Batch of 4 targets.
Target 1
Amino acid sequence: MKRRTFLIASLGTLAAASGLGSCKDREATHLPQPPAPTVGPDGKRRLPWQNWSGYQFGLPAVRAAPASEDELAALLPRTAAPVRPVGAGHSFAPLVPTDGTLLSLRNFDGLRAHDAHALTATVGAGTRLGALGALLDGIGQALPNMPDIDEQSLAGAIATGTHGTGQALGALHAYVTALRLVTPQGEVLDCSRMQHPEVFAAARVSLGSLGVITQVTLQNVPTHHLKRRVWAEPLDSLLERFDELARAHHSFELYVIPFCSRGIAITIDPTEEPPRPRGQERDNDALVHLQRLRDLTGWWPGLRRRLLDLATAGLPEEEAVDLWYRIFPSSREVRFNEMEYHLPRDALLPALKQVLARVESRHREEFFPIEVRTVRGDDAWLSPFYGHAVSGSIAVHRHHREDPLPYFADIEPIYQAYEGRPHWGKMHTLDARTLAQRYPRWRDFLALREMLDPHGRMLNPYLRRMFGLD
């Protein structure tokens, strides 16, 4: 999980010392299974694709990685549909699966151009965020904010509204000033607020349904160092101080550990202090310890809380100073599926309290921390932050080998009373009718999509259902 260095190594020892038996096997036996490789009618072998968590998969008839924009423009009108672009596969929603063409942008990467005075950079849309940091730093630029996973492709992160945290900071797509889109009909459009402005407003968050973005121009800031501070504090105190901390810091996020009286706070701020790089990543070990404690004490929540409180008592504060792109992201080795909703800012803490109460009363099996963030609003048509000055985000997770659906189905209704909007790359169940009520430009987006892709070549079954076309 993102920067979850919040449990001391002794947690595993504490759990084992409880003497409550061995870990219980909680693996779901009915998780979806990827299809076996097959041979298509054309005699070619078809290999399955699956996402990072292993929950979404497909068996594409064609795998394509065009080497140039001209090749891409010629391919899109002719290749087997549905055509679905793929990046790192870090979306938990079934945006990518297709039995048509799986299209990689791995050849559309790297720095294309930059303006040192305006602090803009044009980058290939297939560039991974992990590579983007060093590229931008090399020309003296930095992203204003960054998601907590840096394995995604730039195009995939933008298409799904991927974001970091900070109530004065927008999601990644909010810093896009121009993009180039190849439509399903093979037309190449240069889009900005001045050129094809409606396409630009729609394409910044498009779920890959308007065509294929090949390059993006980003508005950046000068490269800089950041200071990251992590500490544990009584949860009641953190909730009381949430607004103060969110206002005072460049980035602030809160992690609420189920069955623990303390929360974990993380702040990130610009600094001119000398570098003190982050030490060994312990987030993944912490999650393993939390899972083991869950297994050992799931039948006795009081003991679980006592052990977690003991483990987090006196937890030393951590500080690190480094270049911006080394501070924002963390490694993710413990796989999971995720549901995240974005709410009006004043609904964030009331909804969070309801989510935590439901987790602790009905879902003793849950051990992943609840992730709480804030994001500045923007004007991209399908942005979950559209029209809000500031949005609040709540994310819940389920281990990749455990069925996420019952848990997510029980938590999701809490968000509906607040007219929550889902993160497009995470799991949700909202249909076209509800989404049209939550997104003011929903129908405008659908009309533009129909104009750019009248035959629905970019739409897999999931998108067709979500757009109300089936």
Target 2
Amino acid sequence: MTTIELPCPAKINLFLNITGRRADGYHELQTVFQLLDYGDSLRLTRRDDDQLCLHPELDGVASEDNLIMRAARQLQALHPHKRLGANLSLIKRLPMGGGIGGGSSDAASALVGLNALWGLKLNLTQLGEIGLKLGADVPVFVHGKTAWAEGIGEKLSPIETPESWFVVLKPDCHVSTVEIFCHEQLTRHSSPIKIAAFLEGGNGNSCEPLVRKLYPNVDKALIWLNQFSPAKLTGTGACVFASFQDQATAEAVCAQRPNNIDGFVARGVNTSPLHKALGIL
């Protein structure tokens, strides 16, 4: 195997409950990461040297700061005496700063893909530990299952959800996750819930009131989408979403969205397209 092309699926947070703040500044939370069948694509080609080349570079992100490159460097560092190199080509479909895991998913696909391409034989637990160093959302993409998550998002338990269709909208704004999590008005002490409570309809987002207040475009997108189905914020945003029973209805709603809002339709899945592509089920 010298070349592989892998999906980098999006995720949405079906709910997000912030239950506390740790001494190191990270927040304790509960959420459900719902994987989608839509996302970026990453093509990896093995090289005979130890060089890593990523194309194209993302606007405003230096190549060495890109999570894909950082993931690859982490794997290289574990095997300093091997000639591990690759050309990496990214097709970017997911908006940056949308709260749907684009960069984290790209990094996870790089970790899982290069592990296979280079024959390193690391298991998903080992790859997930590397991913956690890159970001709290990376492990869920490495493990490849829609999951109930606690801690800072790294304590994962696979969960089966209905494979609904979702309309995901990206308002014309960029929400800073750091700003939201550092804001004094963020609700940080929501009461923990059990999985059963979530399944019975416990599906709020602790960040949503603050994000709606600070970002009027997010508020407008939620109001518009709520006409068709209960609309929610994913993560800290800016993306919002709503679920529908079938693809046709979701496509019809998405087609009506305001001109200044990007969007896409995707199906919720319980196993990542990345893992299906590599036969990891």
Target 3
Amino acid sequence: MSTVWIIALIAVVVILLVAVFLVAGPGRRGGGRGLKRRFGPEYDRVVAHHDGDTKAAERELEERVKRHGSLELRPLTPETREQYVARWAAIQEQFVDSPQLAVAEADRLVARLAGDRGFPAEGQYDEQVSALSVHHPQQVHGYRRVHRAAHTESSTEQMREAMLDARELFETLVTAKRVDSGRHRPQHADDRHGRSHAPWSLGKGHHPKGSGA
């Protein structure tokens, strides 16, 4: 009889351990190290936002993974991709004469592109950033910077840097074939002859008027 009770007790313990494992979920497996590897600089940003409280930061990041981790990237047609690339090039040209207008347009363009790729729709900035941070943690800061520059008073240099950072996320979203969780560097958009046709760099020859450069 005692043997039966021992076996039953062992079975109960095993069931409890399995239940704890399932409740913990993929976000907890590997603990903070796993989240830090996945989110990179975004992990440090969230920890700082929570005044160094790593447990609170990890709870927030785990919640993001639960909400957005299964998101599937929608493809762009070649025509739509070309339209986005051309629009970004036009915005860069606009930056030379009207930096503030260009930054506002870049902010809207990234939001629209993210929505077209399957992230939360344009107009849902907080949810877009949350989802983008799960899948593109290395580039999401560029969206934050250009959005902030578009909605606050910024110097020309700050706006230029915001555009350059936003370009990284734009490039990733317009060319990526799948959501890569920030583990792969973005590829360049090439034309049918294999040449890059996306003039994304705000080069030395394109300083905005009044920048003093």
Target 4
Amino acid sequence: MRALFVCLLIMSMHSGRLMAQSDITTGMLPVNPTRMMSGLYERTARADRQLRDKSLQYLQRLKTKEQRLYKRLYKKDTAAARQLFSDIEERYYLYGQQLTTDAPPIHALRQQYVPNLDSVNVALRFLQDHLLSGNTALAGQLQAGMAGFQQQVSQTSALQALLAGRSELLQTQLRSFGLLKELRKFRQELTYYKITVARYRSYLNQPDKLVSKLLSALSAQPIFKQFFQRYSALAALLPPSPDANPLLNPGGGLQVRSLVMNSLQQTVGSGPNVNELFQQQMGSAYSQLQTIKDKLAAFKKDKTLNDLDEHVPNRQKTRSVLQRLELGTNFQSTRANAWFPTTTDIGLSVGYRLNDKSLVGLGGSYKAGWGKDIRHIALSHQGFGLRSFLSYKIKGSFHATGGLEYNYQKPFGNFRDLPGMNDWQKSGLVGISKVIALRHKLLTKTQLQLLYDLLAKDRDGTQRFIFRIGYNFK
């Protein structure tokens, strides 16, 4: 009888586990897990490779900046230059090795926490344990790739801390030699590197549509919530059970004094001197904290040091050439009556960001004819143009705009019939534009432009003021 009872108990536990695992199936998911994993693996591998390459590029630039500082200091103090910059080659070689060599896994408590990586890792483990049957190898490969990227982010952050310490040392040593202006370029390059790493981290922390759908579907399942609470990276930071840490308050909230005193008594023993020891340590800690605050206050009051950070770095330097390009279009119509247009100028342009305020570019325009009125619609070629432009941000959303344009303003049959540039009309445009941000899937902003043609005075009957509406694509 007892054996039968044990068998029934084991069967009930096993069936309960099967029911828990069958609460969700791959057919209930809004996306194909295999497709999602393949795309995410390529994205992770590309981000890992690009982050490593960018880090090596910035290390080479920082090394060049230090070599220039060495030459400047060598002219003023040879001994100080040799002491401060004697290990440039060896040090930057070790920095590069730190990025390219596989380091031992970093403990979860010391890793840079990326929420999306954590969620995807737990989702992959859940799929691998509960749903996937023939794609466990792909899931494991993706988990290894994401773990490698997490390791790369952590190693890069550790390298940034070393470079920041090096920057502070150089700042302290070079101040007495009057080389703080030369140090500015080194600090700016280090800032560019920090911005680049932060962009890659935030890029991977923004899941695409497939990953978002999968995580939303899994988050609605109670079994996945329990799985996440147990295996996420946050579980290492915040143990779900108060028994994991004797100093956690079982009632929630902050630690109470009694729990801290009990922990001290267990560590140093009980007696009348425990309370006195506790008060002495608290006083010493408070004194050290106040000393740190005083140093920070003195650092903020140092005008010489603040001058180094007044210049806002050009964030465009951390972007690739393609990321600095901006595609745009604009429209301008001429009406025959109150509402029907006779011609419409359609312009396309490609701009390149020189810095956060300046944009230069090239473009072209096409003038389409629509006919006389609604009863006589006829599409025709009424003109074609080439243009260049320059835009500079003045303040807020207002920009100063200028450019040179060549327009052919006569009807033509096809583009092979266009004459030489001597027969084209030349325009020199200057004006102002206002940029309005848009929340659209395709467009990012609208530009309202009011331009004046400086060369229109040489031509009779030519419109001098031009109003255009432009749009920028994502």
